[in-house]
Amino acid sequence: MRRSLLVLVLVAVSTIGWSPARALASGASGVSPASPRVQADFNGDGADDIAVGVPGESVGSIISAGAVNVLLGSAGGLSGAGSQLFHQDVAGIGSAAEEFDSFGAALAVGDFNNDGFDDLAVGVPGESVGLVTAAGAVNVLFGSAGGLSGAGSQLFHQNVAGIGSTAEEFDFFGSALAAGDLDGDGIDDLAVGVPFESVGTVIEAGAVNLLYGSPTGLNGGRASALFHQDVAGIGSSAQPFDLFGASLAIGDFNNSTISDLAVGAPGEAVGTVDAAGAAHVLFGRATGVSGASSQLFHQGVAGVGSDPEAGDFFGGALGAGDFNADGFADLAIGADGESVGAIPAAGAINVLYGAVGGLTTTGSQVLHQGVAGVGSNPEDFDGFGFALVGGDFDNDGFVDLAVGVPFEGVGVVPGAGAINVLFGGGGGLSGAGSQLFHQDVAGVGSTAEEFDGFGWSLAVGDVQGDGPVDLVVGVPFESVGAVESAGAVNAFSGSVAGLTGGAVLHQDVAGIGSTAEEFDVFGLAVGGPDPQSASAAATSAISTTSAAAAGASEGAGRPLP
């Protein structure tokens, strides 16, 4: 059993087992092109803001109810100034704080009502629906000139009218989230991962609910849709423990001007190889997403690279972006259980490039820490590829990729964690000029400590409003003083030279709501403008979670959880 799952089990014990295959690791799923909206700017001040999930937060005496801190961007970067704190006991937010709800375990940003202010979707996978334990839910908070608010918020679960399927025990609806315009109407939609959903009698096959945006918010117009591997046109079939929906990403992979949906199924068996993993692409259309002409990829597909092995968990993380700036969104697929040679679970990523017919294996890549130029060396259970996010960190028009390696040992410190940053270019992603960061790198902030999990989650945004995309790295098991696993985030600034370290933020920083407490796991999820949206803002060559003008492509990057 690889370390990532063991850690998830430990987290589940302390904060309720919400998202198994780190569906929550990328905070905002990986999104890409097709959208005129390119910021996660909740208050409309021109600087991107970042939401930080704190799913282990106690609300009063209610343990692990969960919360979200919103950190506002400014010319000086992220800080506690003007920050906001939300949980289910805040006025206007649907439901009520309950033990082990894990509010904030997953996050996604989109303008769901098309009012020009970004909104925040918050996964609450441990939420009970009536007497149904851990069926899961999603709260949606709307942006305004004053920032996010509980006023007019929405609450969704599978017993809400029109939402496909039915709330069942331990479905964990809301374990993964991704936002983007999947029907080309200019309004962002929300994909909700339900990786433990049973399909008929097939346990934990997994599913995805799709809620469409409208001027009145989500689910106010086009009927919602439910997808799983037994839906017509979707490759493979529902099997036990596939975990379809454990990860999500959005990008315009065929450059149709309408974004498409990528869905990870990291538990998928490939032939007789258990948990080798797979990824699906469902194409967006003016009529909405459907299974028609969908694509299925795994490491047994010719040209993808590597071979399917038990416990690879291919598809456990997804990140979209236009890495070669050709107008088509590309897809990075994490396989953090991948062995590199004889090194178990060192981890790797497969990169598939976009084309007219969708993703193609032509020019595909397999990247890991043993590849020329990629910092560090592959080691047992590093988990390279556990989290992924794209952004144009050096502002050159190519989307770059940050890669989370949260179990990386730093010197003799086990599990301290690291990130690798791979830069995009005309030939796609490359190890050339790549960057390696951990908390013992000068300027990063804090110190590498055992099992901090630096790189567990990643988010991007132009938080300074200066053009290059910035990066926020979740360190959910960071101790704050003597407070174990209170959690923190490290902020990095983008520039023409790439990323540089910056502030360390946690709940004991002035202005940030609440107080650092044991097992809060602040930073287990982070959410900002959809990956390519941030890059698009900087270069117009990228795209994000909404469909953009015709012909626009997704994310870009070049020169990393």
Keywords:
561 residues; mainly beta; four-stranded antiparallel sheet; disordered C terminus
Question: What can you tell me about this protein's structure?
Answer:
- The chain has 561 residues and is mostly beta strands.
- It is built from two helices and 29 strands.
- The strands form seven sheets. It has a five-stranded mixed β-sheet with strand order 1-13-14-15-16. It has a four-stranded antiparallel β-sheet with strand order 4-3-2-29, with no helix packed on it. It has a four-stranded antiparallel β-sheet with strand order 5-6-7-8, with no helix packed on it.
- It is globular.
- The model is unreliable at 1-38 and 532-561 (pLDDT under 50).
Give a short synopsis of this structure:
With 561 residues, the protein is mainly beta.
Rg value: 20 Å
**Which structural category do the helix and sheet elements fall into?**
mainly beta
Strand order of the biggest β-sheet: 1-13-14-15-16
Distance between the termini: 21 Å
Uncertain ranges: 1-38, 532-561
DSSP summary: helix tally: 2
Kindly report the oligomeric state of this protein: single chain
What number is the mean pLDDT?
88
Main beta sheet, described? 5 strands, mixed
Shape: globular
Tell me the total number of β-strands: 29
Q: Name the helicity range.
A: under 10%
Strand content: 25-35%
